[in-house]
Batch of 4 targets.
Target 1
Amino acid sequence: MTSGVMPSFGITLAAARGSRTVYTLTGRRGMDSLAADGDLTSADHDGFRGRLVSVPLGESAFEDLRCSAFRFERPVGAAAAMADVARLMFVVHGGVTVQEGADEVAVPAGHWLLAPARRSFVMSSDGSSRLLSVLIPTRKLRMPRERLDALGLRPLADVAVGSAFESLLRSLSQSAPDDNTVEADLTAHALLDLSRALLAAQPAGEPADPDDAVRARVHDFIEHNYADPNLHVSVIAAALGVSVRRLHRLFESEPLSISQCIRRWRVTAAGRELLLTQEPFESIARRVGFGSSDTGYRSFRDEYGMTPAEYRRRGRV
């Protein structure tokens, strides 16, 4: 694994092997293996049991952790020393409680959680739990740190892309490509796209800057309407009650323009369908909102650097 990812709570012990590896974790030694950047304890240290599926994917990583009751604390000092890596976690069962300072929130089964880098917190579970995690360098998410901080350490909103993301993670738990292969690069790319889409679709709450609220509404509108082939900036402006000129101005300093955001959603959806179905790309392209298969083909090739057929052939894991 490259230096982009450093040890974290349960992060890929398989890094040295470069392939999917399953670890059985028992007692105090098992807890020590998981607590590279903090303190992991249990009411029954000797009775602690866990199973970790660990998959390195270049600068990113995937984990499937099943374990008995635990309490993990990342202190301030350890948080400050962490690499700038964000952890997206899906709670399959059991539920966890997260505490940051005086704030405490429960994250039940079936919900996503973002644990940003360089933040101290306490995470605990009173019983057995299963957690699917993706670890990605923060810089690759292309989101302002303030936005990531606002989304962190609380249950994320349930959005459409979440179920497809969960399905991909479950499949990686069963079978995954070796690191430093074309298949691993494609899988890492898919995980990154889904992570961006999941976070971009989150409601922005009540940001202090009213422009942030408009941007959040734009992202939300695109998420729910990208499959409409008639979706354009003018349609979004009319729906939100703002001028086209203002929308363009609000996205001047953003990583993607509004048109690029629409294309990214469509291409990401198309890529997901290529891996999960046997349908021809022509049908997929029209279903995700491209006006023609030619437009979808060019957009897909520009985004992924390969044809849809190559992506489907190389990307299946």
Note: The longest helix spans residues 182-200.
Target 2
Amino acid sequence: MPMLKREFTIFIMALMYFTRIPLPHKLQLYSEPEMKHLMRYFPLVGMVIALLAIAAYKLFLLIPSLPYDVTILLTMGILILATGALHEDGLGDVFDAFGGGAGNREKILHIMKDSRLGTFGVIALILNLLLKFSLLKALPPLQMPTALLLMSTLARYTLVFFLLSDGYAGNNELSKSKSLVDSLALFDFTIATLCTFSLCLLITSPLITLTLVLILLSCCFLLRLYFKSNIGGYTGDTLGASEQIFEILILLTLTLLFK
């Protein structure tokens, strides 16, 4: 397969795997051997999601008399719909598991597999949405597109970095997340890095980019330590929860920098 066609196939597969964005039948490409390379375009998938949210945000602003608070809530809804609440689901499961697991590895992993949502998960999701709404509202409206792009792209890039050395903690050998990232190669990480920093330096200053990256990598290191010490590594749910935490950190940092 020619190189450009192969890379395009991997990108389309990543878009299909990580989002609910409908694609024309002719674009629904698939190649089993390339599944292990999807993470290289995870940040680029975040950029596509952000562009959809930005387009929706601009359209909502055109509606006469629509309160700005509603515009932000609808924009958040677009972000959630685009992924099918993939990462929010992980956030709820992780807080349920660690809240109810009482430090017991097997109990934590068992609760995490339970599809039902408990008290800790509900509270975590409510706080997550309230925090995002408050931080997005605090941003200058002109900076909203930049913030959405940085949030969606950098959070996913940090997740790729997260996976470089940690092992899978669950017991399910058929886990989608395990099979997807077990073979994450340095070349995949390099492509993800190039995609991410090309976009960041295009839309914001090197200083803001560096500030965000340092904060995110510090948080990434702490989360990896926490998950490693409690359950022995990552699961699909901890990846989703981490992505949501990274998004909050990005918005909080931008809110402070743009003030």
Note: The radius of gyration is 18 Å.
Target 3
Amino acid sequence: MTSRSGESRRRTVRLLGLVLGAALLVPLGASSPVAAAAGRAVPGAPVATCTAPTSSAKYPALPVAEDPAFVTNLSLPSVAPGGSTSISFRVADPAGSGGPIADVVVSFEVYEFNGFPGNATACLPVADAPVLVNATASGSFVTVALAGLAAGASEVGSVGVVTSSATPVGTFAIRTAINFTLGAAKYRLESRGWFTAAEWADGTEAPNGSAILNLSDLGNVSGVVPETALFVSPGGWDVALAALLVGGAALVGAGAFVYLRRTARSSSSSGAG
């Protein structure tokens, strides 16, 4: 039988993999999440600062080991200009959360564009950008409301994505968040795209340069969830974009290995609630 500590370690490793993967899948501008995480700017790329306004609400922290379970199976769609697709996902209430959770709302927002070729970044609005669609609304930002979930239960969902024939070729970064109520408290977990470069660096990198996840440095959030991106290319998957994904998989694996070695001596800095 798997021990609780062993499962907690695996969840923590998966979370770091999601964090690194999300960072790699967003555009490569000088102030984009990827460039900030790598500690370097892309020569010739314009500066783009696309973070959302900071919320004044205070959300209690959750155990970091639970974060990867809340939003999983987040798809990474590709589409040609003028086509449509969808982003699928699964929302779960981890058994360790003490659920049930109620008032579950998952948010999606297209927030940054990385043109291809050229690697220039831009914050939205971008002309003819993809439109997200839910059951009642459409735009660059949509939400999906789900019924309450019992501890250990899950539910699948999706949002539509529509492009026009004039939608530019490149990568559109899409940040995610999940809000819910547990007991009398309200919680919110956010993906990389909601934070500034400075906030993300403070919350995910120790003074010695090693990887951590410190929620107190990230600010008013309960935890971190993955984000996704939409690849727009006339031929579907462009060779360069496919190469980017291969590099992302390698980085995720390397990050997970490094963090596994450090888990036993550095997990206490995560700020469990």
Note: The domain at 4-270 is CATH 2.60.40.10 (Immunoglobulin-like).
Target 4
Amino acid sequence: MTVFEFAGHAGRANKAFEEQGFRLLKDIARELSGETPYSPYFDPIVRASIRLCKMWKNNESRLADTLWAISPEPEIGYRLLRLTQSPTFNPEGREIEDLPAAVRHFGIYLVRTVTLAIAMNRLRQAQGMAKFAKIANQFWEHSIMTAAIAHVVARDAPHLEANEAMLAGMVHDIGAFYMLYWSMLHDEFRRQPDDARNLIFHWHENIGVSLLEAIGAPANIIEAIIDHDAARPFPAQIANLQDVVHIANFGAFSRTDMTDLAHETEPGIELSAAFAENYRHLVPEIEALHQELRAVFS
């Protein structure tokens, strides 16, 4: 389903959202399709993230290209250098003193993760977001926990790449941050934040997929986040990246304060319980990485 088809379906499917929701989704669809330039209200670092992601359509991007994309925004370099203090990502404690060395050491997946995480955090902290602060903070904490779980779980599966899994875990709810940003720009949603919350809860997955497609994210990352909130049997064995994101997403619900977003359906509760049962032995590693990531982005 294209973003336009999705927006049209959303507007017709629920009369309660028809006037407000359809307008929001059409605006997002128009921007993601490239009919309008990216919003001038975007924080410069969000625009830098978009620029870098579009460059990632070529996975063989040179170091110089990556540095060109991220160097205008000092925070990206600052966060990457903070990551060098992480026992997980620099276990030997190597001295990494500049940005080119950090990019070479971490590789493209970690650079992508850091850049997009900063962009999501900037959208969360945007001026005027006060009405949506609680839900934005919950999505942020959930994203960091999901990223930590995805990394640790994938690290335990030899056929998967842990940094790739962490990227997918970090961005699996990126559509929610984008929709929160757009809700903030519309008076009717600022006046009735519960309407925005309901819209975001039901459709952030689809918007996230469309957003990642628009900015040129790798196909395997996009595929991994599709239907991540859908209740399906807990996998006995991890087959692919989508399994990791699904496990990490429901595992994160049981480990963060998600009072406004929790999957209170019976299948959701069962999946969270299955995670706790099957991955209890990884909890110390998950908690350690979670604290490292929080420190990097604090």
Note: Residues 201 and 261 are 7 Å apart (CA to CA).
